[in-house]
Model the fold of this input.
Amino acid sequence: MKPVQVVAGVVYNAAGEILLTSRPAGKAYAGYWEFAGGKVEAGESLFDALKREFEEELGITITRARPWLQKIHAYEHATVHLHFFRIAADAWYGTVSPREGQQLAWQQAGAYAVSPMLPANAALLNALAIPATLSGSPQHGFYSANGAYRIAPPSLFHSGHDALLLDAHAPQPATVQPRAVWRSVGNLAEFKQAQDADALLWRVENDSAAQTLLHTLQQGVSLPVAAYARANVCARYAQVWQDAGLHALIENRESVTV
Done:
């Protein structure tokens, strides 16, 4: 049996919080928290389904949404193909109203105060804590603007870091127990082999690599991807990458050896 196609939206407010809703009584996993959304009806585009579900469930209008991740999850009652979208604070309007008797909660990514969470959403909740912009390098690690999120290679890693950065094929050191593992990839083959990671750093060296990343994002990815590229490449591709589902952008400022 084919998976049921489902859309879900990660809605942000002006404070940077994300909206979670509880599943109403009478539905499978009633009382569990999730991202709002629902089944795609025959003839609907994914975006049309997203708009309809949010109007029906929450009374708000979505004006635009960026694709993010795709997940296939097998529940006891059905296998679902989930298409997640991110919806910025200025990409929706209206007053959020629980039209199906569900509970609502605005939560800060990485600091969730509601439970239990729907099983298919666990990894996504962690992924949302990854900032959209990072600085640094593979050799010295990456960090957010306020230093609250930090990624380090094995030589620098300690328990205070949020994630360990490994090459695509590198084994995880037995002595290191990170909360998350990032893998660094540079091509499609490495991308396919690194699906055991929690997130991916895609090193983009030229236009050909930039196009490969774009095509991969357009096909749908199940892990958050950060692009690591020179300023000129970022200038040309940042918008189309982000519109296709890129999670984060990192400018490569390493010195070029001549």
